[in-house]
Amino acid sequence: MASPLSLTLAFLLVASVAFRRCRGGGRALASLVEEQPLAMTYHKGALLSGNISLHLIWYGKFSAAQRAILSDFVVSIHHHNHSSEPSVSTWWRGGLGKYYAASRTHPPNPALRNQLIDEGYSLGRSLKDSDLRKLAARSAPRDAVNVVLTAADVAVEGFCMSRCGTHSAVARRFAYLWVGNAATQCPGQCAWPFHQPECGPQAPPLVAPNGDVGVDGMVMNLAGLLAGVATNPFGGGFFQGPKEAPLEAATACPGVYGKGAYPGYAGDLLVDATTGASYNANGVRGRKYLLPALWDPATSTCSTLT
Is the separation of the CB atoms in 183 and 241 below 8 Å? Predict the structure, then answer.
């Protein structure tokens, strides 16, 4: 599972690669990336497999449209339509398939089951990790991943300073994850490339595919964390580097969304002819999403949909 330290490292890598942080130049960034471990090692622990229920726990105020963007993404993971390639489903099964090949199993088949809504901020508007665990425990944990989603006006310990989200587990009983809406707190960090970076080269931001910078950013982070929780749910699965600061399937490819990506450039992406929005995956109900590259353990490279 991803520890706070690992997510700090991953966050700093993303910030460096995607935004060219003010303290470093191009050579320093290239050195940072090149020095990362090249092997994605399997540590013989459990992976998630089979049918997995995803329970969404909405904390704070989200509009119906915002909830639809995220819930449609979750539904898109197991809904395959050959006429809508590249698809979210292909990203999931194709990107994670090689992690499961050695064990002769398949990536988990996550399906949206329950949605709990807490618009009353029952634990306040400033949350600690212990509060996230309490929220995650509100939904049935059996054969499930509980997903805590916090609204734009909710502060979470470490949010923006060191992380955009995290995944963890409760005593190996169930896995959970959290993602925050960074629209008003740090869109230049957690919603890039749909917002100007906080510093470094100020290339024009891309148009968000669903018209919501904060929630489209949440989709990117949610996708990466779901890949991490599937392949390293309890800390003994696939990761690079030390267990205390692992890089997982998506965090091993910071800032990469399409082929040709480099620091400050997300890569070659598809562009919607009508809206001008950038994306790389199609979902249900005509949705379009931008999803992170996944590390290919067979080739030791970042694999992209476009």
Answer: no
Q: Measuring CA to CA, which residue among 178, 183, 179 is closest to residue 214?
A: 183
Q: Which tens digit of pLDDT belongs to each residue from 147-169?
A: 999 999 999 999 999 899 999 99
Structure tokens at 135: 């929220």
DSSP H or E stretch at residue 46: none
Q: How far apart are CA 255 and CA 51, in angstroms?
A: 30
Residue 200 — pLDDT band, cuts 50, 70, 90? low
pTM, two decimals, is 0.89
* Packed helices 213-231 and 64-78: angle between N→C axes, nearest 10 degrees: 30
Residue 86, preceding peptide bond in cis (omega within 30° of 0)? yes
Tokens 């148009």 found at: 207
Length of the chain in terms of residues written: 306
Write out pLDDT tens, residues 20-35: 333 233 222 333 344 4
Whole-number Å distance between alpha carbons of 63 and 31: 43
CA neighbor of 200 nearest in space, from 19, 18, 31: 19
The four Cα atoms 180, 184, 188, 193 give a dihedral, to 10 degrees, of 70
